[in-house]
Amino acid sequence: MNNSKRVEWSRLDNASKYFPATCSERDPKVFRISCELFEDVEPEILQQALDLTIERFPLYKSVLRRGVFWYYFETSDARPVVEREDKPVCAPIYRKHEKKLLFRVFYNKKRINIEIFHALSDGTGALWFMVTLVYHYLLIRHKDDFSGKKPDLNYNASISQKKDDSFTRYYQGRHYRKQIRIEKEKKVSKKAYRIRGARLDENRIKVIEGTMSAKAVLDEAHKYNTTLTVFLSALLLLSIYKDMPVRRKGTPLVLSIPINLRQFFKSETSSNFFSTMKIAYTFGEGNTELKEVIGKLNEGFRKELTEERLYQHINWLISIERNPFARIVPLPLKNISLRIVNAVMDRGITAAISNLGKIHMPPEFDSYIRQFSVVPNVKRPQMAICTYGDRLVVSFASPFRETELQRVFFESLANMGIKIEIVSNV
Amino acid sequence: MIFCGHCKVYIRDGKTICPLCGNILSDEGNDGTGEDIYPVIPLSYERHMVIRILVFISIVAIVTSYIVYRMIPTNVNWPGLVFLGLISIWLSLTNALRKRHNITKSIMWQVIIVSGLTVFWDWKIGWMGWSLDYAIPILCIVAMLVMYITAKVMRLSAGNYISYFLLGGLFGIVPILFILFDLVNVDLPSIISVAASIIFLSAIIIFQGHNIKAELQKRMHI
To answer: Best interface-test mutation with B: which of A1, A84, A400 has the largest number of B CBs within 10 A?
Structure first.
């Protein structure tokens, strides 16, 4: 028994704690980010780029393990290997008892894809990883073009900044409990409309990706004096409404929208730092106009996206985690209770929409990168949006066979005169 | 790209059916630039075939044994034993399969499960005491040996096996209770097991104490 190197480990941040407990074969909590180039991907170069990138993101070298009370990340010396795409989209990554890395990198033709287990990172954190990977890839692939001047990557956080647990950093402490209680009282649990459908074999998901001009869509949004996210959320709500059975038309529709907290609180972390808000809308007689839906959503967004509300949410989440009783409950019991909470919360959500925003790359790369796209983790029909240059990609992922909702959604955009290119995995 | 006249969208990846409306796309607007973006991944039905066959065989075995017993009755209720035997095997097997990625942990659990089963079987076929006399102490000794050998052969890092070594060592001391409470007819296996455990435990505590501490901190953090 020789002395081996001390293994490093770290605690999971607040949001990360939720994912290992609630993931399953049906809902593996895995999302994908893709970058499509104008040329075929060279696997050896991608591997070199990955070797460079992983050194900049030490947390990505960890495996998830179970302690007695909590999960924890343990640094692993496994080397991530680039593979050819040979698994279904967003196939499970984390499985109990397995000690594997929590992300995978693979390619197919012109696309570089990464899939990440949500406990490791949220969309924005993963995007930084992706951007760094593509940056290194293109620098090696086109050495000669960039021999004169290396383009700058505008993401230069230090290792400790990337590892930062920003939830804990912005937690204001227990004396903020009072406001938390107020928040809880305000919450009226209403049963939301849930989209039903026939599941695909092997718990696969159906991805339909529509690419369009960001400018054209923004112009439409500006006609209603609103943002891209609100505009597309409103369209999504209307599409769901059109697809609803008549007898249920009065049920509230609830959208779950993740908020990137880095926009509000200074943080460069590449692990999770997001919160979610729920926006409800009930269609009644005569309020099925896009304008009205947008108006209501605008109001909802304004109310939720205040620093005070976000602080309340963080304080509430962390105070649960810090509760002495909750801490000493053994992990298997925690998992069961989290799964119950998760199931109850799910009943209150109709669909989800998340906007990763505009992706910035050095302008020198414009002629190499066609577009980025995101496939969200799927429990229910879910939508993810991201923009690169003028290419706005709206990805619809759904565990169901039916595509009526997707069709209505894209058709309504097409009817506004927007040209849409569709790509799908089925 | 092909234009779908129903949905008014362009299909980029050279499909013959529109993924949105399911209609067959006409070839007219096709400019022949269909790209394959998402690869086709075939369904994998084969995955658990061996397990399925084994489950099927088990059920057939239980059913036939009961039929044979009905036709040719004997004094001993042997189909019951077949049934319990199969359950024992499955219990042990599923545990081994589920924990196959962590061998030392798997061994640890096997010791506990198999010990429980031997006591159960001993009791079931009219308590002769062989489970406590021989089976459990020998299991403990073998488990410690096997754990040590796998850790060495597979070059596991201390963090991966140390807590299971510790548990294995502690479990190996349990036979001391058999002697103290006079539950055994034959002392020797129990004495060897206890002695081996004490030596094993002292070795890991003396040489790997710091690792044990680090592991406990990690696994027990609240």
So the answer is: A1
Complex confidence, ipTM: 0.81
Q: For position A115, which CATH number holds? A: 3.30.559.10
pLDDT (mean) for A213-240: 92
In chain B, the residue whose alpha carbon lies closest to the alpha carbon of A88 is B41
pLDDT at A2: 42
The C-alpha of A46 sits at a distance from chain B's nearest C-alpha, in angstroms, of: 18
Specify the pTM: 0.84
Is pLDDT at A184 greater than 70 in this prediction?
Answer: no
Chain B touched by A25 (CB under 8 Å): no
Pair A199, A143 in one domain: no
Specify whether the CB–CB gap between B170 and B197 falls below 8 A.
Answer: yes
Quick one: A211 and A124 in the same domain? no
For residue A103, being part of any structural domain is answered with yes
Task: Find, in chain A, the residue whose alpha carbon is nearest to that of B10.
Answer: A421
- Which CATH number is A268's domain given? 3.30.559.30
Domain boundaries, position A59 = 9-157
Pick the last residue of a domain from A109, A141, A157. Answer: A157
Position A1 scores a pLDDT of: 40
Instruction: Say if residues A21 and A69 touch (Cβ distance below 8 Å).
Output: no
A151 & A198 share domain: no
Whether B22 and A403 lie within 8 Å, measured CB to CB: yes
* Length of chain B as a residue count: 222
Region A66-74 average pLDDT: 90
- Residue range A154-183: mean pLDDT, rounded: 68
- Is the CB of A198 inside 8 Å of chain B's CB atoms? no
A185 pLDDT band, cuts 50/70/90, is: very low
Cα dist. A115→A93, A258, A284, A292 in Å? 8, 18, 40, 37
Residue B88: in which H helix or E strand, if any? helix B78-98
- Asked if the Cβ–Cβ distance from B101 to A98 is below 8 Å, we say yes
User: Model confidence over B181-194: pLDDT tens digits?
Assistant: 888 888 888 999 99
Residue A28 counted as domain residue: yes
Residue A179 lies in a domain: no
Question: Cα(B72)–Cα(A278) distance, rounded to whole angstroms?
Answer: 68
Which residue in A has a C-alpha nearest to residue B22's C-alpha?
A403
Q: A204 CB contacts (<8 Å, ≥6 apart)? A: A88, A89, A399
For residues A112 and A239, state if they share a domain: no
Task: Assess whether pLDDT exceeds 80 at residue B60.
Answer: yes
CB-CB under 8 Å, A109 with B36: yes
User: Of A134, A157, A180, which residue sits at a domain end?
Assistant: A157
Residues of A within 8 A of B20 (CB-CB) are 208, 403, 406-407, 410-411, 422
The pLDDT confidence band at residue A377, using thresholds 50, 70 and 90, is confident
Amino acid making up residue A110? K
The answer to whether the beta carbons of residues B89 and B79 sit under 8 Å apart is no
* A94 and A231 belong to one structural domain: no
Q: What is the pLDDT of residues B146-158, one digit of tens each?
A: 888 888 888 777 7
- Whether A365 is in a domain gets the answer yes
- Chain B residues with CB under 8 Å of a chain A CB are 1, 4, 7-13, 15, 18-22, 35-39, 41, 43-44, 98-102, 157-159, 203-204, 207-208, 211, 214, 218-222
